[in-house]
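Handout, page 2. Input:
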Amino acid sequence: MPSFACRLPILAGLFLMAALPAQAGTSVTQAPKAPSALAVTKPLGTPPAGVTELKFRDLFKLPVGPKGLEPTDKLLGLDGKRVRLVGYMVQQEPPVPGHFMLSPLPVVAGDADDAWADDIPASAIFVKLPKSPDLVVPPMAGLIQLTGTLHVGLRDIPAAGRVAPAVLELDVAPERVLLRHAKSVAKAASKAR
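Output:
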């Protein structure tokens, strides 16, 4: 029987293979940084007047009970109200025009992922661009802050093949930033060709 020292390189190789992201084979590329108007690079102050801070941990009651995931009273009370939410844009292939998902942690969901078994947290919500329904928002790396009107309740987004616990309909200002970001990324891509 080989000694432990002989097996160590094999064990190290297996560990490294297991540590590689499952998304390594997808077509998603490294995302550019988020626009500075949305990027969260330091602790945020209080939200603007009329806007309530919503955290992903405030979406569902914890611990999860026998009824499964249940919305918190805070989430239900914010239906139809303006909120600020901080999270990561889910890098999803194929992207969904006019929408993207915001998650409490960085996630890549490639076209090879099965919607029933991917790594997108249940608390991820859809972000809707009301004035730009055809815009495909290019991926952004890093933590971003978004403000908009929250619509609570299970929302089916057929183009994405997903259901989300809520939709954040963006305010005009962050939507404009995303539109400029999309144009900037498209311009850079055309120059690179």
